[in-house]
Amino acid sequence: MLAGKYAELYHQLKKQIPEDRLLHDDLNTLAFGADASFYRLTPKLVVKIYNEDEALFAIRSCAALKIPFTVRAAGTSLSGQAISDSVLLVIEPTEWRYYSINEDAALVTVQPALIGGKINQYLQPYKKKIGPDPASINAAFIGGIVANNASGMSSGVQKNSYHTLAGLRLILSDGTLLDTRDPESRRNFLASKKEMVNKLSELRQKVLQHPEWVEKIKKKYRLKNTTGYGLNALIDFEDPIDIIEHLMVGSEGTLAFISEITLKTVDDFSQKATSLIIFPDIETACKAIAPLRTCRVAAAELMDRASLRSVENKPLMPAYLKKLDEKATALLVETRANDEQTLNRQIAEITAALKDVPKVRPVQFTTDVKEITALWSVRKGLFPSVCANRPKGTTVVIEDIAVPYENLARAILDLQALFQKYRYDEAIIWGHAFDGNVHFVLIQDFTQPAEVERYANFMDELVRLVVEEYDGSLKAEHGTGRNMAPFVKLEWGEELYQVMREIKQLFDPQNIVNPGVLINDDPQLHLKSLKPMPRAHDLIDDCIECGFCENSCVSRSLTLSPRQRIVVYREMQSLKRSGEAPQRLAILNEKYNYHGNETCATDGLCALTCPVNIDTGKLIKELRHDQLSPLARWTAQKIASHMGSVTALVRFGLGALNIARKVLGNRLLVNGSHFLRAITFKKFPRISPYMPLPAPKISRSSHNGKKMPRQVVYFPSCITRSMGVLPDSEQAEPLTQVTFKLLQKAGFEVILPENVNGLCCGMAFSSKGFFEVGRQKAIELEAALLKASNNGQIPVLSDMSPCLYTMKENLDSRLKLFEPIAFSLKYLAPHLRFTPLDETITVFPVCSAKKMELEDALLQLARMCAKEVVVPETNCCGFAGDRGFNVPELNASGLKLLKEQLPPEVTHGYSTSRTCEIGLSEHGGLTFESILYLVDRVTQPK
């Protein structure tokens, strides 16, 4: 329970912010207590902020009560910047998503919750992108990217957030608004904050009066440097507003909240060539940097032998990696241009520049997209490889430093000597060679005091090495955070550190804006609040809580993200093992049933963006399995044994529902289901206004036997055997009949497997935890399909992507299995003439299609069928089988933005999952149906 001033703040905030977005229960505060760093702080109150007005209200309320707060973006920060033990203001990604691109695409204006990679997608048609390109660009919010002055592999120093900034909109700690792009806002600020502005100008003059300070600042920012505040703003700009604007970059949310950002864009070259160049040792690799810097090189990633060894056995890795000498070092070099002729000239220049540098293998560039992807997978696989292979229960520590590039070889050798001294045998090194920027990963056990002491001693020696030996940056890209805050003074010196303290005091006199981060006098801060990483389950023990999964999760805004599910589950398992706090464990278990279990779509999309391929949905399925009662297991077995009767019963129920719809009307029927859900504590399923009509029963005898030039085995899913067309659909025929007609139009003899009405892929059972029943149905289906397909010689079509994905995972590899998208392109297109519709349509790739990498194929097929195709940005619809009926809020959350993403000229929607199409139709405001309807509609036999 909240008490004291936090209770007062809660009652103040709920005047403007709904209570369901003011979270203070144990489960939610625990879930939000972790970011990508190895620290944990549990907030007392989590506030989900939807817009600038709410941010203003919350910040002013905190300021009035002198309560510290931290504004959180995506939580991918690696140094502990995005956590708080007070109030955590979380910017909601479904709300802060406005963007605009100016006429010549030289500027892009964005709200802080837009993901960096998404902004680049918006800019791609203009051949532009944002300058910063951190490894987390597909997970990190732009607010965090700017607040941490993120850079990356090809941005260097000149294309980072600081140098590409064109304007900001800010909320200061007292609630003052400043838009640095608006002349009136600038004038008002200068008038109302005259004392603050004068002090800032005085501080600038103080710095300029010390030439040695100015020279030190210039020297420090020739390197990548995110240690402390950006003092270069004081010498680069004279106008106080410009200084304020640039001080925000890299301030890690400790000076103000950035509510809108305008960035200068940079060119996104269309032609690329990449080479993995192997040198005999680190010294030789670093000697190559100087000549490479004279060439047009977009990226030059250095990897030591230990890092190469960590990935050499992974898929797509070049075979020669295994044969390299122990001292071998690689540079992954990429050059880019807008035309092939320029690209070839740049390749020739690079090759010539390296002519006299010893190499293990000749320099070979590739322009093949697949080969380039494979080469970059070497670099991108380093961090995941270490994470996946670490001992269970240990923590991954990733650090980054920078030294003058001419000292890079010596610095790396010194760093390797430190690893050896402190027994970090698994440590690997990689880095951005041109910037002298070195990243390294350590495996650390923070549960043992002796191990913490080992880490402390290592850090002390590392700091002295970087600062005293090389005058380098203790943090090049990842931000100061809590991890390097104790060492900022050592890097910058007492005088300039005092300037930073004055900056903090000027902007945040009450010390309530993300306190403790960046400026902190506790010399042991980096050793406190260490995040526990206890063993919990084999499926998730590799998780480092980086948050890369969150953007893929449909329940993220509703309840928990995959990262948060793991955080809470780890805590529950730890409590269970220790036997401590049984009452707390009971409460967490009870809340987790809804927040962790019921609202998980188990779609597996989280694994696609997870660095170590963790599918949190598999954990949830395991939990569902463990919680099954004997009665539930018996019922599932009976259903599985009588699938024909069950689908018949579903058809009967849908028929009865349609009669009720005609008598009562859709509105009364839907509202009646809401009432029944309320009085049965959500046990009664919600009835959607788009509940389909019953499908006709399939008769195997009426479809088999018609001879055609080609053959296909058609397995209609149990869903399409049950559910027919939508009530108001223009199509009179159910999907099964359309599929038969379409296949025969293309000259296919359709073969139905024996006992087709009793078959099921098993997904409906396994997703609920009935693994044994799911396997039983998969075995039955496999036998039937092998027989029907002549042991895999004849292709098999299933009309739903989710079913096909399950079949591919579980059935005999001899079977040639296809869902509607791939089958249409491979087998139907050659035998049909397509006449595209003069309409605008939309297609929605469901989760299973995404996992099978069929998004581009779906778009290709749709463009063969219609002249204009719109693809909404939504990841997962959240219908998840029967979740759309039993947990409809998950579907509503997943498709919250769908209707606004569809322009009014869109006439129809198409997909490849019957149940998903129910939710898509309801929340999209137009009819969604199978893509096979569209293919049939626009084709004629050749």
TrEMBL record:
Question: Any keyword Signal?
Answer: no
User: What EC identifiers does the entry list?
Assistant: 1.1.2.4
- Keyword presence, Transit peptide: yes
Cofactor dependency:
FAD
Q: Among the record's GO biological process terms, what is one?
A: lactate catabolic process
Q: Where is the 4Fe-4S ferredoxin-type domain?
A: 533-563
Name the UniProt key words of this record, in alphabetical order: FAD, Flavoprotein, Oxidoreductase, Transit peptide
Query: Which residues are in the FAD-binding PCMH-type domain?
Result: 39-268
Q: Which GO terms describe its molecular function?
A: D-lactate dehydrogenase (cytochrome) activity; D-lactate dehydrogenase (NAD+) activity; FAD binding; iron-sulfur cluster binding
Supply the PANTHER family for this chain: D-LACTATE DEHYDROGENASE, D-LACTATE DEHYDROGENASE, MITOCHONDRIAL-RELATED
Entry similarity comment? Belongs to the FAD-binding oxidoreductase/transferase type 4 family.
Protein name per its UniProtKB record: D-lactate dehydrogenase (cytochrome)
